[in-house]
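Dear support,

We are seeing what looks like truncated structure output for some complexes. This example has two components. We would appreciate it if you could run it in full and send us the complete token output so we can diff it against ours.
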Amino acid sequence: MWIIGTGLLLVHDVNEPLKEGYMPRVGPNVHFCQVSFLIVPGVPAIKPGDDLAGIVLKTFPDFQDGDVLVIAQKIVSKAEGRLVRLSDITPSEAAVALAANTGRDPRYCQLVLDESTRIVEVKGKVIVVEHKTGTICTSAGIDKSNLEDADTLLLLPINSDKSAEGIRVLIESKTGKRIAVIVNDSGGSPYRQGAIGEAIGFSGIKALYESKTKDLFGNPCAPSVNVVDQLSATASLLMGEAGEGTPVIVIRGVSFQRDENAKLRDILISA
Amino acid sequence: MWIIGTGLLLVHDVNEPLKEGYMPRVGPNVHFCQVSFLIVPGVPAIKPGDDLAGIVLKTFPDFQDGDVLVIAQKIVSKAEGRLVRLSDITPSEAAVALAANTGRDPRYCQLVLDESTRIVEVKGKVIVVEHKTGTICTSAGIDKSNLEDADTLLLLPINSDKSAEGIRVLIESKTGKRIAVIVNDSGGSPYRQGAIGEAIGFSGIKALYESKTKDLFGNPCAPSVNVVDQLSATASLLMGEAGEGTPVIVIRGVSFQRDENAKLRDILISA
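Here is the complete output from our reference environment:
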């Protein structure tokens, strides 16, 4: 008997023995496809200059073809040395004005301006900007948590697509497996409360899935589906937002299209 | 040996035999926590008046404590008979004006207006509204796909929180297991392309996770985390958008806070 999941799903012959990473059987008569989020423990604290791909591989040596590796922006930024000291910043007039509007440190506002191409909206303390990479985010994605002291801030990677590509190519060359890599960060919706993880860079995975199929009754229905953000969201939830220290998730069992030229701009709506 | 995931993660003793639904071991030295998305096959086509909880239970009889059942809005709406015929609608002047602006059928526009409390934005064909339940969505969530004919449209459930609660209470009473239920739908971000699943109603699960912890270095960091949308996103991806016919996902292994009074308004930002 075959359970066939079309489109994004997997196919599993339930008469086959269970493979690691799949568990298509929960009860005597129930068979299903499974997608697993593997929360990788034991990732050490990352320092500037660290070989992130090597560290991930050491912590999780068992990649399989089709795995999606989701890495928290924080450790990518740290490995890439994107740390800055607030005390090194001299604020401009524009930063001082933004600070007066928001009640924030003028030096912090300077960093936000330096990392952005435009301000989208200011609401109280919240500064929504377009980051240089094109992603819309609060405070240009500048991070204060999980850092050694209050004077240290962490910027987004300069190009998270390139970061993801570097990690993907290295892991693929060492393991011989074909994987995808997503760098995720906390984002959110202007209409909804609470952080929602989203992709800020990726490699090896087609970001938008364009359905060419018709619906169950043959009517055309072709909304595009944002694959990378939907995977990033649950991954973010499982990484936790505070000190949980699980910045690496491996998603196993999800079907996706390979795209070695995938880039963040594929999913952004330009202003 | 214990792998301890704080906050949202689970704890698993790797010396214990594997439990169904968990697979904490991938290689000789790698142990990890796992969250599984079980894609439930064989859910039949749903008709108005169907006992959705009963049908889910028949298809997936093996609920465990802590499972999160995610059900596509489409089948909830169908079971609740939220079908309307375009040919029964007489458009008002406002609907005719909206139709002229958007190039859409005036009767369709009437339905969108009937289901909404306000128009948020009109961009070309796209009508973003606040649905009566408070959720911001395009076309008031009115659905044309997976319906028998072009004259039939499907409205959102009147109150998806109540829908989720009814399903949860019934499944809990029949199985003796404590679960959560989320009704999800395709949403999206104004800044990003492609559909991203989001929750439009839920029961038994605290929607926002407020971290009370400090970060790895003891600095305060307490962004709230949108639990239900982050789970809905990957669930939507796995359900597929077209004719895949897998509108039921069970998420196993994710830790969440029980909340029997949870409601959609908990995560909405009011205008």
